[in-house]
Amino acid sequence: MVNKAEYEAYEKHRQQNATARVSLPTEEVVRPRIPFEACLSAWGEVEKVNDFATPASDPPGARTYALRSSRLLNFPDYLCVQLAKYTIGSDWLPQKLDVEIELPSSEKKEEFRVDLAGLRSRGGLQPNEVLMPDLDAKITNVHSTQPISVEPNIEYVSHLVSMGFTNLASCKACILTNNVSLETALEWIMEHLNDPTLNDPFTEQQRADSLSAQTPANEDSIAMLNAMGLTRAQAVKALNHTGHNLEAAADWAFTNPDVLNDVQEPPNLSNSSGMTTPTSANQCRVQQHSESSNTSTTSSVYELCAFISHMGKATTDGHYVAHIKRSALAKCIPNETPVHHSGSPCCGGTDDEWIIFNDEKVAKSESPPHRLAYVYVFRRVDAPID
């Protein structure tokens, strides 16, 4: 906070007036003022992740802590920064932080620039760093030597044993059919009578693999996981890994995000020759951009070109307005002469002016409230104009 003394003096004055039931004028309000650079530094700080299941332990999955930090691999043409102004109070109700953000000053009055060089990623594995082992593979290996934990239906087992089948084969049939019914278990045994491993001990991993091979993923379960943010391929993998148990699949998916990220998505469309076809021109541009810019060599300096503010004291009311710098607005239709309607003022102005968009009302902003913004939109200084 850059105005701590001023804010504390205001709070003392406000409390005195509140006791006397006197309201202070709005123009006298003093809010905590936080430097924008401090927000960026907080975002890039090393974070301690507690209760982390490490794949490096023996056996894997021991609970410890991990250190995590975020960096920018490349710098896009436009960067949108959302401030964490909405939080949860001590009463567990959502509330809005009434603070101001101090943007970096510049030689020009209405120009705000920020350098993100300190957040540039060094790119990939660094010297003296070792990649963590694959937690999913290690846990699979451990499970392959451990006894199963699922109990077969005792009634079904008794019926099967009375038919002359061994107890082990009967238990295996019930578990591998998920105790669906006696008829299903009997059918499974009849299909595997010639299997030499019918009476061999089996593992939990074999059960999961068998279920995955026999039962396709339920579309309703996939839809539920899609609603949680997973792709179809990720949902299918999670369901297969957990024997098609929706609750277990959701838990496994969100505790093993790195494993899910390895899933290759199937192509959305394909032509008659079998060649994949992008779904849109935007997808082509995204693919081209991701392949050609693993690390950024562009400028790390950004200039503020727009911001969005929330008008209201609470998270449950108010509305949003936008301010856009005139230099970021289209002057007119390309290759067309600007048209001025009779009776309306000319739209001319300098590039340093800010324009406010409040529902259907559009006007020049005499005093743009940069410090009260909720979302900032920056443009990289060397980004292409078109």
List keywords for this structure.
386 residues, alpha+beta, Helicase, Ruva Protein, domain 3, two-stranded parallel sheet, elongated, Ubiquitin carboxyl-terminal hydrolase 5/13, USP, UBAC1, USP_CS, cysteine-type deubiquitinase activity
Sequence stretches where pLDDT stays below 50 over 5 or more residues: 142-148, 264-294
SS elements, strand count: 13
What would CATH call the class of the domain at 135-142 and 215-260?
Mainly Alpha
Helix content: 25-40%
**CATH topology call of the domain at 135-142 and 215-260:** Helicase, Ruva Protein, domain 3
Per CATH, the architecture of the domain at 135-142 and 215-260 is Orthogonal Bundle
Proportion of beta-strand residues: 15-25%
Give the name of the CATH superfamily of the domain at 135-142 and 215-260: Ubiquitin-associated (UBA) domain
Distance between the termini: 39 Å
Main beta sheet, described?
Answer: 7 strands, antiparallel
Record the SSE blueprint.
Blueprint: H1 4-19, E1 33-35, H2 36-44, E2 47-54, E3 62-68, E4 78-82, E5 86-88, E6 94-96, E7 100-102, E8 113-115, H3 135-143, H4 154-162, H5 167-176, H6 182-191, H7 204-214, H8 219-227, H9 232-241, H10 246-255, H11 257-260, H12 281-292, E9 301-311, E10 319-325, E11 354-358, E12 361-365, E13 373-380
Parallel strand pairs: 1-7
Antiparallel strand pairs: 2-3, 4-13, 5-6, 8-9, 9-10, 9-13, 10-11, 11-12
